[in-house]
Every structure is written in C-alpha cells, then in structure tokens.
Design brief:
Blueprint: H1 11-19, H2 23-30, H3 33-43, E1 47-48, H4 49-56, H5 60-73, E2 76-82, E3 87-92, H6 94-97, H7 100-113, E4 135-139, E5 151-155, H8 189-194, H9 196-206, H10 212-219, H11 223-235, E6 239-242, E7 245-248, H12 250-253, H13 256-269, E8 280-284, E9 293-297, E10 303-304
Antiparallel strand pairs: 1-3, 2-3, 4-9, 5-8, 6-7, 9-10
Bound molecules: zinc ion (2 copies).
Length: about 300
C-alpha cells in the first residue's frame, strides 16, 4: 500500500499498527508480575534485598533473578551501602523513575474500577494544589485530552503486504479463574495488561477492530482462546458485544491513558523501539501537531513531571 493512500480505517493498517506496537517490548518488561511490584517498592526509597524479599513474599531465587533482569534492562541500579561485608540496596534509575506516571495511572484505574482494591503504594499528592494526585494524559501542544478518536497515524513509507506479529517472551499468567478464586470484575489493570491475549485484544478493540474473524486473523489467536478472553472481558464489563461486533466499554477504554504512558516510556527508553513503530507517527487531529503527550493534575491542570 502506497504511503499517500494509506487509510487508517482499513484492516491492513490496523493490523500493521497492532502487530508492530511498542507495547510488545514494553510488556515484556512490565508484563512480568513481579517487575512492576519491584519498581513500586523502590519508588519511595532504595531498598535492601532482604526487605524486598520480606515485603513481596517472594523466594530469594525468584527475587534475585528479577532484580538482575531489571538491572540489565536498566530500570534498577544496585548501590553499595556497606563495604565489609559487601551489601547492596536497589534504587530506581532515570529509566525506572520514568515509570512513575505509568504506576500512577494504573493505580488510578484500579481505584476507579475495582470493588476490592488494596492500595499498593502510598497515595501521592500534587506538589502544586496538594490534592490527591489524579493524572490526565493530554496533548503537549494544545493540552486537549488524547483519545483514540482524535488521533490518527501518518505514514512515511509504504506499507508491507504482510507484517508478522512481534513475538516477545511473556510470562505465563492466569487471569480470573475458579482455582484462583478471582472474579473477572476483580482483575486489576496490571493483570489485564500482563495477560498476553487480553492485552492484545484490548489493543485491537481500541483501534476499532470489531469482528471476531478480524480479531482472530490480526492477532493469530486460536478461536477457543479468543472466545474465552472475549467472554471474560464481557463478564468484567470491559467490552460488550453488539450487532456489528465487539467494542470496549468505558471500563476497558479507561486503560488507554496508562497504555499511552507505557508506550511513551518504551519509545524513550527501549532500544527495541527502533524496530517497532517504524515509519509512522500519531498526529493529534484536534490541533494538527504530533500527538506527544504530557501529564497534568486533574485538579489544578499543572504539568506533572
Ligand atoms: Zn494539582
Ligand atoms: Zn493537540
């Protein structure tokens, strides 16, 4: 498809955007059940290995693997606090620190949409107005909210006939189930995004893919898995089924700001981003500028950085 005639509403374009999304490499890191918890745990202050093991109730072996990987990926740094014997504590690097808006937005979704929500981190207040901080994700240029119905991709190159789905290593994860005694409506924002199939389906629904067959072919997903996840999304009031297919309900669509935050983080910090989202950028239709985002406090509109 020639760059000048690319039509965002076509299924081929949607497939290209979904299959090459930066969210694939981002969720390889943030989709791990422990990684976000670890980043959250050291967000206030550096923590020692033993305190992390106690606080998260995780085995020493599993903790050490996660910490090493987060260090390799650049989110955490080890700082020596005792020379003899050598002892270390873990702190956020600038890359890890840049996850703060993502953590806040995930918390925000959980507070708003979960019935039984245990707050994972201490509430954050706005430095400016001192209200409990609630973030809005808006266009850096015109300060209007960024929503999928007011952005569109602009392509700089022709579109390939076929784009394979990016495959990244993702931790196996079980969503709501009888064995875990978790009800669909109690599945947290982190859990929806960490489940590979649910996050892909939510992404496709955000881009307006509606029909079962289209979801199946774009996501290369087995029909029984797709119908199982769609059933779960409906039970959780994340999506609904109408005559023209599936669409996200407000509860599902409300994950979009956190997804913008995660994608923005990936574009800035992940080397893998060079291979993702190649040759296109989102345009903010409302103002005609690139859809670069910023975070503002919902109470006083001051930028959060
Ligand atoms: Zn404020
Ligand atoms: Zn704008």
């Amino acid at each position: 498809m020639n760059a000048s005639e690319i039509d965002f509403s076509s299924l081929q374009v949607k497939a290209y955007l979904i299959r090459t999304s930066i969210m694939h490499p981002v969720l390889e890191i943030l989709g791990d059940p422990w990684n976000l918890k670890l980043v959250r745990s050291v967000a206030d202050a550096p923590k020692k290995f033993v305190s992390l093991a106690e606080a998260l109730k995780i085995s020493r072996a599993a903790l050490s693997t996660r910490l090493n990987r987060l260090e390799e990926q650049g989110c955490l740094a080890r700082q020596q606090y005792c020379e003899f014997p050598p002892r270390y504590e873990y702190a956020l690097t600038p890359m890890g620190d840049a996850l703060r808006p993502t953590l806040l937005l995930l918390d925000q979704w959980n507070r708003e949409w979960l019935h039984n929500h245990e707050q994972e981190s201490a509430p954050v207040t706005c430095h400016h107005c001192h209200e409990a901080l609630q973030l809005a994700v808006v266009c850096r240029h015109c300060s209007e909210p960024l929503a999928l119905n007011n952005v569109k991709p602009l392509f700089f190159h022709d579109l390939p006939e076929h784009t394979p789905l990016q495959s990244y290593r993702r931790t196996r994860h079980t969503l709501a189930s009888k064995e875990r005694s978790v009800l669909p409506e109690d599945v947290s924002a982190e859990e929806w995004l960490r489940d590979r199939w649910s996050s892909l389906i939510i992404g496709a629904l955000l881009f307006g893919v509606r029909r079962f067959n289209d979801l199946q072919s774009i996501l290369d997903i087995a029909p029984n898995i797709l119908s199982g996840r769609l059933e779960l999304l409906q039970q959780a009031s994340m999506a609904s089924r109408r005559e023209d297919g599936y669409r996200l309900l407000p509860r599902g669509a409300a994950l979009y700001p956190a997804i913008i935050a995660m994608s923005g983080w990936g574009r800035q910090w992940l080397p893998a981003a060079q291979h993702s989202e190649n040759g296109w950028r989102m345009l903010h239709i409302s103002c005609g500028n690139w859809a670069n985002h910023k975070y503002i406090c919902k109470a006083c509109n001051t930028e959060y950085c």
